[in-house]
Amino acid sequence: MFAVEVRDHIMIAHSFRGAVFGPAQALHGATFVVDLAFYRKSLDQNGIVVDIGLAHEALKAILTPLNYRNLDEVQEFKGVNTTTEFLAYHIFSRMADAIRRGDLGEDARAVTRLRVMLHESHVARAWYEGDLG
Amino acid sequence: MFAVEVRDHIMIAHSFRGAVFGPAQALHGATFVVDLAFYRKSLDQNGIVVDIGLAHEALKAILTPLNYRNLDEVQEFKGVNTTTEFLAYHIFSRMADAIRRGDLGEDARAVTRLRVMLHESHVARAWYEGDLG
Amino acid sequence: MFAVEVRDHIMIAHSFRGAVFGPAQALHGATFVVDLAFYRKSLDQNGIVVDIGLAHEALKAILTPLNYRNLDEVQEFKGVNTTTEFLAYHIFSRMADAIRRGDLGEDARAVTRLRVMLHESHVARAWYEGDLG
Amino acid sequence: MFAVEVRDHIMIAHSFRGAVFGPAQALHGATFVVDLAFYRKSLDQNGIVVDIGLAHEALKAILTPLNYRNLDEVQEFKGVNTTTEFLAYHIFSRMADAIRRGDLGEDARAVTRLRVMLHESHVARAWYEGDLG
Amino acid sequence: MFAVEVRDHIMIAHSFRGAVFGPAQALHGATFVVDLAFYRKSLDQNGIVVDIGLAHEALKAILTPLNYRNLDEVQEFKGVNTTTEFLAYHIFSRMADAIRRGDLGEDARAVTRLRVMLHESHVARAWYEGDLG
Amino acid sequence: MFAVEVRDHIMIAHSFRGAVFGPAQALHGATFVVDLAFYRKSLDQNGIVVDIGLAHEALKAILTPLNYRNLDEVQEFKGVNTTTEFLAYHIFSRMADAIRRGDLGEDARAVTRLRVMLHESHVARAWYEGDLG
Predict the structure, then answer these.
(1) Is B8 an 8 Å CB contact of chain A?
(2) Contact A116/A95 with Cβ under 8 angstroms?
(3) Which CATH number fits domain E16-44+57-75+98-133: 3.30.420.40, 3.50.50.60, 3.30.365.10, 3.30.479.10?
(4) pLDDT for B13-65, tens place per residue?
(5) Are D122 and E7 in contact (CB under 8 A)?
(6) How far is it, in rounded angstroms, from Cα F2 to Cα E124?
(7) Most F CBs within 10 Å, among E16, E32, E85, to test the F interface
(8) Is A39 helix (H, G, I), strand (E, B) or coil?
(9) F82 contacts: CB under 8 Å, gap ≥ 6
(10) Residue F97, Cβ neighbours under 10 Å: how many?
(11) Rounded Cα–Cα distance for residues F27 and B12 (Å)
């Protein structure tokens, strides 16, 4: 399996509901450095997994609506805990949509799998990895 | 698949037996920066894989008996080479036990897989990844 | 000149006032990975710059009141922009106080200089470095 | 599954053919920091996945003919785009050959899988992972 | 002293003249991850060293003419070895010019010092640090 | 001021004497990733600070007698605590000697300053920086 991974980041505020979160129930924030990997079985005729320029752009397009936001105020996240794990899956879903729409080019439809990893500090990170339907 | 990974470290002395180890047959030491990843298929009702605070504590509890030790003198390691690979598996087993005992909470029993990665220098690391029985 | 540096981190929310901040004028957040370096001309009789255990504890004590907070709501920061640069200086001042109070031990009074570096993402960091009066 | 990973690097020039590459169609270059992981199901009698010394040497032997080269002038790469993905597979194939030849020792024949990851910058990397036939 | 540092990168080809360079006399290439630090004695009225958005843009503007180039073919570099050290100084000079021109805003004229660090691999980097005239 | 920095590492065992070291009074060990920076005011006729190949070799020659050793058994370290700080200065002194002897070439005599940084974990490092006499 081949993979290409690109990196970007967001800086957000949020709070969590649930005793398990302890002091993180208060409004706080995070920098999430985001690594998004695209997997495919074989390379296209150019010798690549995806157009890395389009990959960076597509990731940026997904992250921009989240960047410099208080996620507690984002309509589609109302009532959910925007944990690192949750956000990894959110970004996964959006990139899956982007690939289906052709935002990464026709060749990128051969991408079979994505992994979205969010680094939240030097001692913690989370990811979601899954096949494209 | 979702995953959450936490990081800690130990500083140990040890020696190896076997010509394959060359100069590392002598008593020497290592800092092992330990990344432990917890995998599960879906998030719990709080939107998390595990309670990251408990995850850090459980990892610390596993590492403390090894930290600042000469592993050649640790009873349970007598007669084995405490290689990076071996220690990865040792930590894997201990964390599997901790999850079964409920040290990471009831919800953590849904964790299906662990990966334990030990970074021994800027040019070498080892890991063990396996399913929980 | 000798130096020892320890690392910890905080996860905070805040907003900025001033057109220069663009979208960062909105409430958002950051993980700041904090490196704090202690400088001194010669080592103490133990061969160290500072007791690294006390150094980690003192840094933790300075960071805890900031961690998991919305800095806009912190009384002493009212009316100031809690920029990365500003926070570096804040932590510098608190650690200078801690050394003067003897929190790092008597020997640590020989520390002549501190540097506080905050990593806010994989592409940006800021620091303050200065002599102790 | 156990794994051991070693790191080395190359510094090469090359150009790409195809509009998808944009400005990278011009002759340019890259540092590729190469991580090569060896996987096996169980450890050998010494408690290791591979002889890490031999692993470093075998990787160096594969990289040396590429290092400080203009890949456009390398005979076996004529007519192909030497993308990061392509080079990951090239190194994978060479290491698979080395293991079959016994360059990493007899015990290394138990290695079942390799992953070759090339870091091309702080925001992009690619890898190939596959089973040994 | 306060500092803010921003990061970007270039991917270039070049060759060196001189026996000291050994195999690097051949046409090869490098990724240079570039960290550029701005120093000033006190913060401006917004609490910052420089407008970090303008800092990123100014660095990008300096790097773009070098990116995806064979530096042997760049007119102003004819007859010089474009070593990592040399390029650090080149970028330093260009950023000093940009500050003088006001590209980073009027407030940035209070910047007194720059450091330009180029990471060429995981085991080597070079930098130039100097005062602004 | 120009600088070039090279990286290598050692894996050692040692113990400390003094209550300040707590559990580190026991025999334990460390991986020290060593960054050694060479500073000089201007570049030589080749456009470099030092021959980076010779720099790597000279650092390796200094580290080899320490690597895979129990430092408690090294004759010249008898009666001293081989702290990270102490080892940074030890390596500094040896490299200063090497430069004086001409091991890095005649041109390297223009190096005026060295910094030796030892990373002992992901949360602690120490360094010594000083002028050459």
Answers:
(1) yes
(2) yes
(3) 3.30.479.10
(4) 999 999 999 999 999 999 999 999 999 999 999 999 999 999 999 999 999 99
(5) yes
(6) 14
(7) E85
(8) strand
(9) C47, F12, F14, F71, F72, F74
(10) 12
(11) 8
> Can you tell me the distance from the alpha carbon of D12 to that of D72, in angstroms, rounded to the nearest whole number?
10
- Contact between chain A and chain D (3 or more Cβ pairs less than 8 Å apart): yes
* The token pair that represents A103 in the structure block: 């935002």
Q: What is the pLDDT of residues E35-77, one digit of tens each?
A: 999 999 999 999 999 999 999 999 999 999 999 999 999 999 9
Task: Report the distance separating Cα F72 and Cα E87, nearest Å.
Answer: 44
**Does D49 touch chain A if contact means CB atoms closer than 8 Å?**
no
* Subunits close to D (at least 3 CB pairs below 8 A): A, B, C, E
ipTM of the complex: 0.96
- Inspect the interface and report whether the beta carbons of D121 and E14 lie closer than 8 Å: no
DSSP state of D66: T
Q: Flag if D28 and E120 touch (Cβ within 8 Å).
A: no
Q: Is E56 on the interface with C (CB under 8 A)?
A: yes
* Composition of chain C by helix, strand, coil, percent to 5: 35, 35, 30
What is the least distance, in Å, from the CA of E32 to any CA of chain D? 8
Which two structure tokens, joined as six digits, stand for B13? 């002395």
B1 closest CB neighbour out of A21, A82, A130? A130
Q: Is residue E101 a contact partner of residue E112, using CB atoms and an 8 Å limit?
A: no
Task: Note if the pTM is more than 0.95.
Answer: yes
Give, in order, the Cα–Cα distances in Å from B70 to each of A129, B76, B87, C55, F24. Answer: 39, 12, 13, 25, 11
Q: Any contact of D with F, at least 3 CB pairs below 8 A?
A: no
Domain boundaries, chain D: 16-44+57-75+98-133
